[in-house]
Design a protein that fits this description.
Helix 1 packs across helix 10, helix 2 packs across helix 3 (75-88) and helix 4 (97-107) crosses helix 10 (209-221). The chain is globular. By secondary structure, the chain is of the alpha/beta class. The chain is built from 12 helices and 10 strands. A 6-stranded parallel sheet has the order 4-3-1-2-9-10, with helices on both faces. The chain has a 4-stranded parallel sheet with strand order 6-5-7-8, with helices on both faces. It has 2 domains: 7-95 and 210-275, Rossmann fold (3-Layer(aba) Sandwich); 97-208, Rossmann fold (3-Layer(aba) Sandwich). Substrate binds at residues 11-12, 43-44, 75-76, 186-187. It is an enzyme of class 5 (isomerase). InterPro entries: Asp/Glu/hydantoin_racemase, Asp/Glu_race, Asp/Glu_racemase_AS_2, Glu_race. Pathway: Cell wall biogenesis; peptidoglycan biosynthesis.
Length: 283
């Protein structure tokens, strides 16, 4: 019997669909195993140690379900936990922060780059750190956007509240003469029409999803991760949540297609580190 090993993708909610859609586009023969930690969304206001623990629990679950590669489709988790996850687990793990920072450096002409992200991501400063490694004279301006994720998670990402929030968050960045903005949360590309209306056409918007999946694809092409056997037939994607499956389907269906969300399962990850013998000490 041929064993199917999916690509694990996780986020606090539906934001990771921006990465999942890129998997469908770049790796159409692969199968994804998606986990949305909707019981704990939004991640931004939560303390770092708690968010690191959530990431370890989710990755442990995805690997227990056979994931051969993990895409951390959450900038907050990537900022706080990626290095620890990569040190602890043998399965390849790719985050979204470095791909976004690297693309921003490549497209910015004046080296003045804005970062829209959650509070926790801005506090960590991982985007700025990577940008400075690549271009030491760059100027990076971070802007926390605490209302954006709840607006997406409740399906209100194109309404008047979103427009008001966009103006509030982007006006300070526009005053810094930036020419590039990183969408430093995977939820934010769903707000791109609103953001674009606020900033105009001249400023580049960087969505890290494409380059993140490209890095995962490279691991497959180099033979570090095995490709899915085509004899398995059409991919069967699986979706799991820690919160309410119905709410996830209601909000997520317009974003990724309702036909994919016909069998969303709720799972509780409390105690999974002990059950899977993952004795992790998280500071």
């Amino acid at each position: 019997m041929i064993r199917c090993q999916p690509i694990g993708v996780f986020d606090s909610g539906v934001g990771g669909f921006t990465v999942a859609r890129e998997v469908f586009r770049q790796l159409p023969g692969e199968e994804i195993l998606y986990f949305a930690d909707t019981a704990h969304v939004p991640y931004g206001p939560r303390p770092a140690d708690e968010l690191v623990r959530f990431a370890f629990e989710i990755v442990t679950f995805l690997i227990s379900e056979g994931a051969k590669l993990i895409l951390v489709a959450c900038n907050t988790s990537s900022s706080l936990a990626l290095d620890l996850l990569q040190e602890h687990f043998s399965v390849p793990i790719v985050g979204v922060v470095n791909p976004g920072a690297e693309e921003a450096v490549s497209v910015s002409k004046n080296g003045r780059i804005g970062v829209l992200a959650t509070e926790a991501t801005i506090r960590k400063g991982a985007h700025a750190q990577r940008i400075f490694e690549l271009k030491g004279r760059a100027k990076v301006f971070g802007q926390a956007c605490p209302r954006f994720v709840p607006l997406v998670e409740t399906g209100r990402y194109l309404g008047s509240e979103a427009r008001q929030a966009s103006r509030e968050y982007l006006t300070p960045l526009l005053e810094k003469n930036i020419d590039t903005i990183i969408l430093g949360c995977t939820h934010y590309p769903f707000l791109e029409p609103i953001i674009r209306d606020t900033i105009g056409k001249e400023i580049a918007l960087v969505d890290p999803a494409c380059q993140t999946v490209a890095q995962g694809k490279e691991l497959i092409e180099k033979g570090i991760v095995s490709p899915r056997d085509p004899r398995l037939g059409k991919p069967r994607h699986r979706f799991y949540v820690s919160g309410d499956p119905q709410a996830f389907v209601r909000v997520g269906s317009p974003l990724i297609g309702g036909r994919l969300l016909t069998d969303v399962q709720q799972v509780c990850l409390d105690g999974i580190l002990d059950r899977e013998n993952q004795k992790v000490v998280i500071a």
